[in-house]
Amino acid sequence: MGTGADAAAAPARAAGGVLAATCVSAFVVNANTSAVSILLPAISQDTGASLATLQWAVTGYSLVGAAVIVTSGALGDIFGRRRVFIGGLLLFVVSCVLIALADGAGLVIGGRAIQGAAGSTILACGLSLLSAGVSGAAQMRSVSLWGAASAAGAATGPLLGGVLVDVTGWQGLFWIDAGIAAGCVPLTLRTVRESRDPSRPRSVDLAGTALVAAVLVPFVFAVTEGADWGWLSAPTLVCFGISVVAVVGFVLVEKRVRAPLIDLALLRNPFLVGASVAILVVAGCINALMYVCSLYFQNPEGLGMTPLEAGVATLPAAAGIVVTAPLITPVVHKVGARNVIAGGFVIATAAFVVLALVRASWEYAAFVGPLVVVAVGLGLANGPSSSVATSCVTEDEVGAASGISNMGRYVGAAVLTAVTAAVFNAAATKRQAAGAAAAEALASGFSRAAVGLALFCAFGIALALLVGRIRPSGPPSAADYAAAAAAGSHTIATGAAHGPPAPGTAPPDTP
Question: What is the distance between the alpha carbons of residues 472 and 482, in angstroms, rounded to a whole number?
Answer without folding.
Answer: 15
